[in-house]
Design goal:
2 domains, globular, 17 helices, 4-stranded mixed β-sheet, D-Maltodextrin-Binding Protein, domain 2, alpha/beta, 5-stranded mixed β-sheet, binds beta-D-galactopyranose, 14% strand
């Protein structure tokens, strides 16, 4: 009897201790997530946060957003916070040079190799993507999606009415553009500065082809070469068929012009597919049509949003729980169908995705992959910021030669060209 009581007491002590450890380990307190997914860019992130909150009810999530497509404003605020020693618990950052050439070189991120091992992520994330978030010293973020940059959107019914087909090349576009103009239609809608850079990368990919496009980012093709001057020339001709109020429009407003029948085409990343189907209720195939941007068939220009663990973030354990959630199959298949992106995980459940995203997933498997400039894959922040100035000057003076020389200087200063 005495022995039984002792055993029971010992069992109780062990049980209480285990429960205490479990309670201490359960994430609680706060978690601040920083991104530019605000307003009508928000539903996918909100769904991901709801999933996190269901898993970790003791944590209060602060969804800190700074509006502005492509993070143009958020990235500036982030820089002030990081340099001021006030990092958020985790922040949105593009896989590739935006992460590696900016926050990793500045030693502001924690290595997550152990997390990838623990979660079995080496088996589910594609090697190419792992390479974008890694250096020899570690793995620096968790990718939540893959977006495609080189997509052209249109409304099939409108094109029929205007008597045009989706152009397969820029020459075809330039051939049909005057007839659209004569009918009072803007051939190609455009928004603020970064959306011009977004268009530029598609034009560059088409004009240079994927090998030379890659050469640019590897410093093997000079920015002053006749080919790159040719990209600026073509870009200038295309701009003649865009709306004059572009600098004052957001990417959503440029998409709205196509949906409203004011413009025939828009080139945007596939977050526009999420915006059309989730926010505007315009669905793929029935409502909108899409194609690779002219001259880029067979090439998938990719970018990936990711989140990392900043050194010195206030709520480290809660952030690790966040990273586990966003890297999980459930997290990714909750977020991406609403975002208008695909999951890079090879076990993603495609039945949860719409017909556009299913086609993107197929192309991601079979196409040649290149990286986006406008969304941080191929160039660091220094290059991006200065390239935005080069673009502003080009939009004002349309001088291809001057733009090529200015871009070459920026490439040298940012370390892109050694
Ligand atoms: C991209 C980002 C997308 C989307 C887009 C428009 O840079 O990767 O997820 O938010 O900007 O803001």
């Amino acid at each position: 009897m005495k022995r039984f009581c002792l055993l029971t007491a010992a069992f109780c002590v062990v049980l209480v201790a285990t429960l205490a450890v479990a309670a201490a380990a359960a994430p609680q307190g706060k978690l601040e997530i920083f991104s530019w997914w605000a307003g009508d860019e928000g539903p996918a992130l909100e769904a991901l946060i709801a999933l996190y909150e269901a898993k970790y009810p003791e944590v209060t999530v602060i969804n800190a957003t700074v509006t502005g497509g492509a993070g143009v404003h958020a990235k500036a605020v982030l820089k002030t916070r990081m340099l001021g020693g006030d990092p958020p618990d985790s922040f949105q950052v593009h896989a590739g040079q935006e992460l590696i050439g900016t926050w990793v070189v500045a030693q502001r991120m924690e290595d997550l190799t152990w997390l990838f091992q623990e979660e079995g992520w080496f088996e589910v994330f594609p090697e190419d993507l792992l390479a974008l978030i890694s250096t020899d010293e570690g793995i620096w973020s968790v990718p939540v999606n893959i977006h495609r940059s080189n997509v052209m959107y249109y409304i099939p019914e409108n094109l029929k009415k205007w008597g045009v087909e989706p152009p397969k090349t820029w020459d075809e576009f330039l051939a049909i553009a005057p007839s659209l103009q004569e009918q009072g239609v803007i051939p190609l809608s455009l928004g603020e500065n970064w959306t011009a850079i977004h268009l530029w990368e598609s034009v560059a990919l088409s004009y240079l082809g994927p090998d030379k496009y890659d050469d640019l980012w590897e410093g093997k093709l000079s920015w002053t070469s006749p080919e790159v001057v040719g990209v600026w020339e073509l870009f200038g001709r295309i701009l003649e068929y865009t709306n004059p109020d572009a600098p004052s429009l957001s990417w959503q407003q440029a998409t709205d012009m196509v949906v409203a029948g004011q413009a025939a085409f828009n080139i945007m990343g596939d977050w526009a597919s999420g915006y059309m189907s989730v926010t505007l209720g315009v669905k793929p195939e029935e409502g909108y049509g899409w194609a690779p941007s002219p001259g880029t068939e067979g090439v998938f220009m990719a970018l990936s949003d990711s989140f990392g663990l900043p050194v010195g973030c206030p709520n480290r354990e809660n952030t690790i729980a966040w990273l586990k959630t966003i890297g999980s199959k459930e997290g990714q298949d909750t977020f991406n169908p609403l975002k208008g992106s695909i999951s890079p995980r090879i076990d993603s459940d495609l039945s949860k995705y719409d017909v556009y995203l299913q086609s993107a997933a197929r192309d991601y498997q079979s196409n040649r992959i290149v990286g986006s400039l406008a969304h941080g894959t191929v160039a660091n922040e220094r290059f991006m910021n200065d390239f935005a100035t080069v673009m502003d000057i080009f939009l004002a003076n349309k001088d291809p030669q001057a733009a090529a020389y200015a871009a070459q200087a920026v490439a040298i200063q940012s370390g892109l060209v050694k």
